[in-house]
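User: Second chain of the day. Same drill as before.
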Amino acid sequence: MAVNANDLRKGMAIRHNGSVCIVLETQHRTPGNLRAFVQATLRSVNTGKSAVQRFGSTEKVEEVMVNHSKLEFSYKDQTGYIFIDPQSYDTVTLQDEILAEAKNYLVENLSLEVLFVEDKAVSVELPSSVNLKIVESADGIRGDSANNVMKPAKLETGLELQVPLFIKEGEIIKVDTRNGTYMSRA
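Assistant: Same format as last time:
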């Protein structure tokens, strides 16, 4: 399906130079006495690389249909990360390249949004925070209670981050998935 470049929006998938790209950002520009154009930041589904591309405002672009699915993480094995669709009970295997940093937050039964383009998973969207258990953390030193003193802690997923001194091994904490920081006790 062809659409005008003016109709490009964030999150759309288009075919550009023979490959499928996701639109990350668009800006409509009208410079002085020149013709209007749309400047779009595109990320290639195949390579993962981003580039800025200009389109004439009336130029036609081929839109590719995308599908968002809510999947639950089940387990990890040698083939990849196994997710299950809670409605149909179909399983989907995702690789490290698609998950990227998201694999640091995956715990059993965690729901996340997976973007499919032409029946191929291309990206995942985590919830803004997850609850994770601390498996390894040094004890706080008595008397070391200056403002906002932090110590390293290792979580059940292998992720390491800084937590306040009062947090102990075995506790469950809330972690911000956008920047990988401690938020609070869960």
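The radius of gyration is 22 Å.

User: Great, on to the next one.
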